[in-house]
Predict the 3D structure of the following.
Amino acid sequence: MPATVADSRTPVLEMKEIVKTFPGVKALKGVSLKLQKGEALGLVGENGAGKSTLIKTLGGVHLPESGEIRVGGQCVSLTTPSVSQSRGIAIIYQEFNLAPNLTASENLFLGKEVTRHGFINHSREEDLTRELFHRLGMDIDPRAKCRDLTVAEQQTVEIARALAADAQIIVMDEPTAALSKQEVDKLLAIIEDLKREGISIIYISHRLEEVFAIADRITVLRDGESVGESATADVSKNQLIEWMVGRPMEEEFPKRKVDRGPVCLKVEGLSRGRAVQDVSFELREGEVLGLAGLVGSGRTETARLLFGADPADSGSIFLKGAKIDLGNPRDSIERGICLLTEDRKEQGLILIHSSVENFGLPNLKEFQKNVFIDQGTEVDAFKGYVNSLKIRLSNPSRKVGELSGGNQQKVVLAKWLQRNADIFIFDEPTRGIDVGAKYEIYLLINQLVKGGKSVLLISSELPEVIGMSDRIIVMKEGRIQGEVNDAQRASQEEVLELALGEQVLAK
Amino acid sequence: MRLKPSNFGLGEYGMVLALIGLCVLFSVLTLNRQSGEGIAAERELTKVVLDQFPADRAVLVVGAENTSSATMAENVYASVVSANRENVRLVVGGPRDLRDALDELVAESGGLAGIVTGGDASKWLVLEQIEQNYPAFDSFKIVVPSERLWPDFLKASNLLAIVERIVVIAIIAIGMTMVIITAGIDLSVGSLIALSAVIGATVVKHMGGPEASGWAVVLGFFAGTISCGLIGMFAGGLVSRFKVAAFIVTLGIMMMARGLAFMTTGGFSIDQVPDSFVWLAQGRLWGIPNTVILLAVVYSIAHVFMSHTRYGRYIYAVGGNAEAARLTGVPVGTVIVLVYTVSGLAAGLGGCLQASLVRAAAPNMANMYELYVIAAVVVGGTSLSGGSGRMFGTLIGAFIIAVIQNGMNLLGIKSYAQMFTLGAVIVLAVLLDKARQNGGFRRLLRGG
């Protein structure tokens, strides 16, 4: 048998021709992948390509109809999550599985507590936890409650938990979605260490830069099939995107040419506690103003103050020259300000209700005849947006929670467009959204400003802020650190320097 | 692309089927020989009188007072007289009245052609003993309508009993459904029934007691209902303004309201009420029982409100995700105050009905009713986690509970076993609902 050196080793994990169908949908149509010891495999693909389903079959959540899973060369049947764990597979889902009111070490040993004479040995657990955190290079108090930890720290707890369970294969689903740049770097360093220890990683991410940085090989899924596989060194970013979307990719950020109008929103000395301190800026009609900064720099908090979601301690807001006081979101919406929250699932949408109900919620007065809601008008209006925003859904009465991230974002956008808002605050508009849908969101932002609307764009992805904004203001620790007037010519370093408040590069 | 009517889901079909199934089951189990009644029986008796009874002798039409046989007797008498048959006598009362009528006939030395009767009156001993006791009469006939096979369960009187049994719970369940859809709970409704009833009865007592006018009764019921609405509004205010758990707030109010009810009457019950007091729950309008009309009207209004108005949609939105609703411009606080106010008003109205049904108001009445109300809502498919549920589902849930209780009564099942069965049904209903949401029982058992 002619085999290369790499192939001759037994892979720690091999998935062959995995098929999984849900009522009406064939989610996986025969996906195969291989994972070697100490290797990081990048798994990429658009939303709905089948990545989540694939890792859920690995995690024992879904049982595939056909296909074979081999762990260490041995054919296994992963019927439940605990069987999967006992085979040395640990899955870190995008939504962490941590009990917020338990401490880090309690979470780490949840279900496999260290006991002495039948009682939990807390001090031993804490020592072991400290050791694991040390191994991961993180300094976290084992007694800290998980709800008080940052996202990056919670992630470390998840990884430590996988190590405590002696996992040989760790799957990470979108691990960096909510991390800042340094935290991402830290995570990638941890993954390098794990690889060196012989642990294999499956790394799922929309951020191709990270995948290129960490993965040894990359497998691409599209529509439930593995459409491409390559060593990272042998493949270009454009090739990957082409595999993912099934067609060659145009430029990443669509160009636009819009003349900026007069100032429509002016903010002066806006403050709330330590999160937002003395923030002032202006927003013009037809302008995209980028709001950059690290996670925790006060960007989201500023947006919430503008929208009236939280009360401000001090400061004033002028809308088209007139001073307004924003008491609550209701008043803001009435004045034409809308917020597309960073967390669509918790704050933007009612997931158990249909997309048309979510769309109609702020617009019910408009659809009202006498005192009754005219559901025909409501559905017709929504269908208009389904066409114009290219929302892909089979049925407007389906739960919005079943839609992909991109389509959910479009439903949120549709409800505010119908409300005829003038100022759109986008907080992380493309988080968790795949490449193709991202581009569509960018096009929609361009259409908005072309129509004379104003956009405040908050994003953790520097290329996105730079590529989409006319001007950028950068926040650090609740204050505005600086402003970049010509965003098109800004460099990532320039923005990052402001965000960090220090020189990153020797000039 | 089409819009499926999402407000009538699989779950409710399931509930309707379950209700129909229960009705069929109890109908089969209570199938019984019934003495004839109704229009067909009246026609049959009228025909017998006109065709078979010789016109030269007297005919007695007999009914037992305050039963369906009295109505039948009156109707037969009327149609026989209008057919110009003479010498017909109507006897509505007790066995003694029949004996008096027969004695009178003997005294007049008139002959007896026959007696037509039915229902309870046909079982009187007097009828069997006429031949021995009244040898003067010869060749007379006693005719009753032909018997038929019909379930006890489906008798009009039994169906009305079911409605009367459930009307209070069903009406309060409207408010409770709204509260539970906002992901809240209202434990105070049972106590508010008692409070509303004693407030209403106290007003009536002070305005003349048994001699009080109809307006006094209206005023009393109004006072009781509005007081409970205000208490509900207070509870809603606490829940929305101070973000206190609804369970705790309404638990406190449950005890406070019960205490107030006892304080209002000094611990006694009030039964000095005028006849008009019972009209609300026992009267009829155009021949239809008021309770049935009331249920139909309030449930229709509640359904339209929930599915076709702005605030109805807001209620679902608040329960589905309160923060997302707030950030979409829904007045969350107002919505919460609204649902608890409606719940209070519904409990107040329920209290008036309960007092009217039993013709008295007692501070210890309607104990534990809040649990029956919650059971009706949950059996009707409303999720305790909020955001989903339907008014008609709740109505069906209430009827399922009532039909099970009534059916077990008819079958002579002991009350302890009834309590056990009802509890088991509630648990089963919730399990079925969970299985439906999760897509099958196997998933549910796997804990997936």
